[in-house]
Amino acid sequence: MTIAEMIKKTRVDNHLTQEEYANKFGISRQTVSSWENERSIPDLQLLITICNTYNVSLDSLLNADHNYVDKIDMHEKIVRISKKILLLICIILCFYVAFYGFWKIHATNKNEAFANTVSELGFTLNNGIYVKSDVDTLYKLPNQKLPFMEFEFNLQQITAQYRNETLSCNLILNYDNHKYFFSVDYGLDATVKGWITENGKIKYNKLETNDHLTSSEHRSDIEDVLHTMVEYYNTAYNLELK
């Protein structure tokens, strides 16, 4: 006799409706119906209670209904696996919370350090950009905020606008692979590019060595601006050269 057959037999033999049978064991009528139609099975503890109530041999019942035993084994396996998965999720969550806390402290300190450093350099925040005016040059630094779960700023660069009576140009400088790369834009399709070594030597791209800007009277002024940009860059981004 299967579990489903036993449940239906004990209910019918005792002249109980499904609802009355359900109330007897603190479950719903739909659950009893599901058991009798083999759509689900009672858990082992409830099955023991039913067997004790109607003097049914649990051993004989389990020996006769192998499917129930298989389902119980499968259920126990699922429970064990679920517990392991839950433990793993808890470990990952704890690690994430700890890592996020560490990053949050780091981000707060780095953001504040950047703001304090550029302020000490004489930059002021204007429309979301740090600016500093010096004679013919306006230097600009982005208002840096550490990206989520990152440990370095995405955009590490400094720009400048150089203006006098005869020349107007925009400069951009960033650092990569032990060199400062720069570009000087002074008109439509007129750009000079190059790099600065860590010891301060300025080199221009070969194709632009003869550009009139690099050989003009303004070359010294532009190179002074580039050296100043390097100084501000190193300080703002805490770049320690080896």
Spell out the key features of this protein.
242 residues; alpha+beta; eight-stranded antiparallel β-sheet
Overview in brief:
With 242 residues, the protein is of the alpha+beta class.
Give your account of this protein's structure.
This protein is an alpha+beta fold. The protein has helices at 3-13, 18-24, 29-36, 44-53, 58-64, 66-120, 219-236; strands spanning 124-126, 129-134, 137-142, 157-163, 168-176, 179-187, 190-197, 202-204. It has an eight-stranded antiparallel β-sheet with strand order 1-2-3-4-5-6-7-8, covered by helices on one side. α2 crosses α3.
Outline the secondary-structure elements.
Blueprint: H1 3-13, H2 18-24, H3 29-36, H4 44-53, H5 58-64, H6 66-120, E1 124-126, E2 129-134, E3 137-142, E4 157-163, E5 168-176, E6 179-187, E7 190-197, E8 202-204, H7 219-236
Antiparallel strand pairs: 1-2, 2-3, 3-4, 4-5, 5-6, 6-7, 7-8
Helix pairs in contact: 2-3
Order of helices and strands: HHHHHHEEEEEEEEH
Strand ordering within the main sheet: 1-2-3-4-5-6-7-8
Q: How many alpha or pi helices? A: 7
User: How large is the radius of gyration?
Assistant: 39 Å
Q: What structural class is derived from the secondary structure elements?
A: alpha+beta
Through-space gap between termini? 83 Å
Secondary structure tally: strands: 8
Percent of residues in helical segments? 40-55%
Main β-sheet description:
8 strands, antiparallel
